[in-house]
Amino acid sequence: FMRKVVLTLCASLRMSMNVPKSGYRVFSANSSAACTELAKKITERLGVEMGKSVVFQESNRETRVDVKESVRGQTIFIIQTIPRDVNTAIMELLIMAYALKTSCAKNIIGVIPYFPYSKQCKMRKRGSIVCKLLASMLAKSGLTHIITMDLHQKEIQGFFGFPVDNLRASPYLIQYIQEEIPDYRNAIIVAKSPAAAKRAQSYAERLRLGLAVIHGEAQCSESDMADGRHSPPSVRNTTGHTGLELPLMMAKEKPPITVVGDVGGRIAIIVDDIIDDVGDFVAAAEILKERGAYKIYIMATHGLLSADAPRLIEESAIDEVVVTNTVPHEVQKLQCPKIKTVDVSMILAEAIRRIHNGESMAYLFRNITVDD
């Protein structure tokens, strides 16, 4: 009898060792149909079905998430595209992650191509670093890994206590330049501000093109406005200790707009990570036209294109605006035919496949340097 028991245990042990790796599921946390298009493209490339879930807004505008299948012990990928209603999308993602966490999912990985609040990643005046707050909320909800694309500042990855894969859209945008812009060899890459010079330099070196930088501003920016750091006033009526005598910091005075580099008789390609308020891009295009550029393209990863951006682009000197599908912008494309889209679902799908199979992500970052 004992011999039979031992043989049975050995057989069950061998069977347990041959159990295949636990599966994975891909869910979409968006409640709007327009935002699920990217998730559908990713699942089609992966050859898997979308996870069964329902995300909707109740009558009092509260977000509700119902997961319709078992996820126990599985690796879950949540694809969340950020629409104009940013705060609703964040709540959808948080509630979806928490629902999966409480359903005993093994790993919960957020696929967030455009990371919201990424511009609020530094302390300004008496504000707050909202991006750090969002990172803490995502970790608390149950996420264990994030896949994103072209963070506004790469240092945002340090806000998280778990892995963050910051993919790049530049290979697809560079491919578009090479295939869709006639005579791109006569082009010059333009940074619309010195802050964007590193990104522009990366494009210029890969395309073997020249580089130009726009410096200065036509009007005072927000940074030139009254700042709380000027208080208390320099003249104090108190008779007590006056404190340390610090050197007086001279106020900044920005020069009028100038273009460093020759754009005359060339195609100007302005590159950036986000195009939202297009006022700066329209002003840059006018300056480039005055300096002799005969065609102007804008290449950006995230096309937020808020407010009346489509109309301003249509009426401007810009010939074409090329963005990726990290953010839905079909309505803006209907309003402005100059807006073109590049699909980046392939690299997102490949990142999901490699993470699930435990493969190296180095292939997706080949030839990517620290400055890119």
Automatic annotation (TrEMBL):
The keyword Magnesium does not apply. SMART domains: Pribosyltran_N. GO terms for cellular component: cytoplasm; ribose phosphate diphosphokinase complex. The keyword Heme does not apply. Transmembrane segments: none annotated. GO terms for biological process: 5-phosphoribose 1-diphosphate biosynthetic process; purine nucleotide biosynthetic process. Residues 32-142 form the Ribose-phosphate pyrophosphokinase N-terminal domain. Keywords: Nucleotide biosynthesis. InterPro entries: Pribosyltran_N, PRTase-like, PRTase_dom, Rib-P_diPkinase. One of its GO terms (molecular function) is magnesium ion binding. It comes from the Eukaryota. Belongs to the ribose-phosphate pyrophosphokinase family. Seems to play a negative regulatory role in 5-phosphoribose 1-diphosphate synthesis. This is Phosphoribosyl pyrophosphate synthase-associated protein 1. It comes from Gouania willdenowi.
